[in-house]
Amino acid sequence: MAERGKQPPNQSARRDRNIKEQRRDVEKAPGKLPEPTACPQCGAVVHKGRWTWGATPPKAREALCPACRRINANTPAGSLTMKGTYLRAHRQEILNLARNEEAKEKAEHPLSRIMSIKEDGDTLVLSATDTHMVRCIGEALHHAHQGDFAIQYSKDEQFARAIWAREE
């Protein structure tokens, strides 16, 4: 048997290795941010290693928070598609529920935000900066208005795709 790491003399080195491509995450900072650091766009502050809401300390460094970077790059971490005839009749109620869930989640976690809500006929597509936001809103819709709710998380990417549907 050949030594570990050395090829036998009658075999050449393998060149068919699968090399995983590095995934560039727009949300991820290049390193740990020093304290105090504040986001000039939304006002979130790094405190004890995490982004929180609070007063911006004097002489704080400025850096965009991960949520603002996602919003600026238009790269959501999740999407929730809402559809069905029930949506048409209760559109404003459903939008209010989504905004209330966002406010509740955002108060605790500054990086969880709704990026956009686009309307396409009888369908609403909500994009969020966090996968948990999509799940929270979808579960709240299912709890309050029943219907069918399904969520799928991507294997290699941090992305959640959810669908809520209800017919009258």
Provide keyphrases for this structure.
single chain; 168 residues; alpha+beta; Alpha-Beta Plaits; 2 domains; 9 strands; flat
Task: Please give the structural blueprint.
Blueprint: E1 37-38, E2 45-47, E3 50-52, E4 61-62, H1 66-73, E5 78-83, H2 85-89, H3 91-108, E6 114-120, E7 123-128, H4 131-145, E8 148-153, E9 160-165
Parallel strand pairs: 1-4, 5-9
Antiparallel strand pairs: 1-2, 2-3, 5-7, 6-7, 8-9
Helix pairs in contact: 3-4
Describe the main β-sheet briefly. Answer: 5 strands, mixed
Which consecutive residue ranges, at least 5 long each, have pLDDT under 50? none
Mean pLDDT: 86
CATH topology value of the largest domain: Alpha-Beta Plaits
User: How many DSSP E strands?
Assistant: 9
Could you please describe the fold and organization of this structure?
The protein is an alpha+beta fold and 168 residues long. It is 27% helix and 24% strand. The protein has four helices and nine strands, in the order ββββαβααββαββ. The strands form two sheets. Strands 6-7-5-9-8 form a five-stranded mixed β-sheet. Strand 1 (37-38) and strand 2 form a beta hairpin. The chain is flat and about 75 Å long.
